[in-house]
Amino acid sequence: MRQKRAKAYRKLMSLYSMSFGFRQPYQVLVDSHMCKEATVHKIELVKQLGSVLQGTVKPLITQCSIQELYDQEKDHKFAVELAKTFERRRCNHRQPIPGDECLTSVVGDTNKHRYVIATQSPGLRQHLRAIPAVPIIHVNRSVTILEPVSDATLRAKALEEDKALHPTKPEAAKLTPTTSAATELPRKKKVPKGPNPLSMKKKKPKPEENVSAAKSEFPDPTAQVGEKRRWQDDDQEEGAMSTKEGSTHKRKRRRKHGGQSSSTGQDPVD
Ligand SMILES: [Zn+2]
């Protein structure tokens, strides 16, 4: 295959893969005419299919198509042999119908199973060009050819791309999370349960608590002694002797030593 053609086919197959999900091994439905053409012209069909599609291929033949060949087995023995090597595609036509009609029904309106069609029937090729995303292969003077992309395929591709750029309303809603619910929830203030503790009446203190409160009002005399001693120690260091006015003395001293003071404490006697 010439390099220019190879490049064109590679581009074609990448379009089918990217836009319509075609995957290797490519499923190629081969019709009875193609089987006859290949054997008459001694074409290695499976090899040619792989080279045109530039990947691995899985040739298939429908029940109706192989039946057509069986009917002409006397004249086309090798074609039958070739068709037998292909995987059978069940088309569920109880009474065999003409191959063209069978393939038309298998491809349907959308080619949802992503078949590549290899056919020598001009009528079938014409019909398949109207269905989007159907790669068509035929043989012309022993050269296997992949048809250029059809207008129907191009239109379907453009439609898909447009859909991707402009999503419909429900799709857009899926893409962008609902802002109202997401932002408003954290703002909601928590309402405390139960009555306001500030508006509640204070409980009357229990008798036990009264006792302890009384104790704190008149501290332990031993503690007072300890305090006294501490003051004494302080005063001794500083040379002051009065234990009675310990606290006043200290304040006074602090003021003297500390310089400025905003203390509102009791002024010592002058
Ligand atoms: Zn059929």
From TrEMBL:
User: What are the alphabetically sorted keywords of the record?
Assistant: Nucleus, Ribosome biogenesis, rRNA processing
Localization per record: Nucleus, Nucleolus
**Major site of localization recorded for this protein:** nucleus
The UniProt record lists the keyword rRNA processing = yes
Pfam families, A to Z: Fcf1 (PF04900), UTP23_sensor (PF24779)
Task: Report whether rRNA processing shows up as a keyword of the record.
Answer: yes
One GO cellular component assignment for this chain's record is: small-subunit processome
Q: Where would I find the UTP23 sensor motif region domain in this sequence? A: 187-204
Q: Where is this region: Disordered?
A: 161-270
Q: Which domain of life does this protein belong to?
A: Eukaryota
- GO BP annotation list: rRNA processing
Basic and acidic residues bias: start-end ranges: 161-172
Residue ranges with Basic residues bias: 249-258
Segments of skewed composition (Polar residues): 259-270
- Family, similarity comment: Belongs to the UTP23/FCF1 family. UTP23 subfamily.
Q: Which PANTHER family match?
A: RRNA-PROCESSING PROTEIN UTP23 HOMOLOG (PTHR12416)
Entry function: Involved in rRNA-processing and ribosome biogenesis.
Q: What is this protein called?
A: U three protein 23
From which source organism is this entry?
A: Ganoderma sinense ZZ0214-1
